[in-house]
TrEMBL record:
One Gene Ontology term of the molecular function aspect: DNA binding
Biological processes per GO annotation: DNA-templated DNA replication; double-strand break repair
Keyword tags: DNA replication
Pfam families from the UniProt entry: DNA_pol_A, DNA_pol_A_exo1
UniProt name for this protein: 3'-5' exonuclease domain-containing protein
Record domain 3'-5' exonuclease: where: 3-180
């Protein structure tokens, strides 16, 4: 569509852009995309709805079409990406066949390194920028009455999602300065950020386990434990519950007369 083509040109012209997904679940591996927001500059953000359902929703582009067209800027390694908890968004996109390249800044990771008390985007926006953002519960509710983001009206979701992407971009510059000032930039840029795609790969593919070896180790350790228990009972002269601190203390200090450590 002309509007989407215009947005793609805007993203390609920018040196970086912040992005954020709205989905149906906090579980990235099973979440379905409801929409994506993108912010190429402070105060400028766009929302593309793809999965809002229910009566009265506006017409939306097919998720496949949107994914296919956004693939180029998202996978373009020359375009820096900004996100808050980017590992989640990148995992969701990976399930749609998109590999996000060059995630250069994650505001949640930065906040963690800076020892912020709260790592949530809303709390950071308030504490760092003095901006009070709309909480997600204002859209989907909470508890037994909570609804899926897919049931939220597109216009309300758009305002919420665009604010998320915009604030992520605004926080980036502020937190980047703090990281440099506190001597944490090298750790952030050379260790923490390169680790994000590694963790995504591990979580999506799992870790191979040699179950036969683990079974053998368990059997071997079990035999060693039985042998140690027998030696303990032999030294004590009778059996007792080794896992009981009271019985163990009685055997060690009353029966065997071992010297007790001074209490502090």
């Amino acid at each position: 569509t002309p509007a989407l083509d215009k947005l793609l040109n805007r993203l390609s012209a920018a040196k970086s852009f912040a992005f954020d997904l709205e989905t149906t679940s906090i579980n990235a591996m099973s979440a379905e995309m409801v929409g994506i927001s993108l912010s190429p500059a402070p105060g400028e953000a766009y929302y593309i709805p793809v999965g809002h359902v229910g009566w009265g929703q506006v017409e939306q582009l097919p998720v496949k079409q949107v994914i296919d067209q956004l693939r180029a800027p998202l996978e373009d390694a020359s375009l820096a990406k900004l996100a808050h908890n980017g590992k989640y968004d990148m995992t969701v996109l990976a399930e749609y066949g998109v590999t996000v390249n060059n995630l250069s800044f994650d505001t949640m990771v930065a906040a963690y390194l800076l020892s912020e008390k709260s790592l949530g985007l809303k709390a950071l926006a308030f504490n760092k920028l003095g901006i009070e953002m709309t909480p997600i519960t204002a859209l989907i509710g909470s508890g037994a009455k909570q609804i899926s983001m897919s049931l939220v009206e597109v216009n309300r979701a758009a305002d919420y999602a665009c604010a998320d992407a915009d604030i992520t971009g605004q926080l980036t510059e502020l937190l980047k300065t703090e990281l440099h000032q506190r001597g944490l930039w090298q750790l952030f840029s050379e260790v923490e950020m390169p680790l994000v795609p590694v963790l995504i790969h591990m979580e999506r593919n799992g870790v191979a386990l040699d179950t036969d070896l683990l079974r053998q180790m368990s059997h071997r350790l079990g035999e060693q434990l039985l042998k140690l228990e027998a030696e303990i009972y032999n030294n004590a002269g009778h059996q007792f519950n080794i896992n009981s601190p009271q019985q163990l203390s009685s055997v060690l200090f009353q029966e065997l007369k071992l010297p007790s450590a001074r209490k502090t």
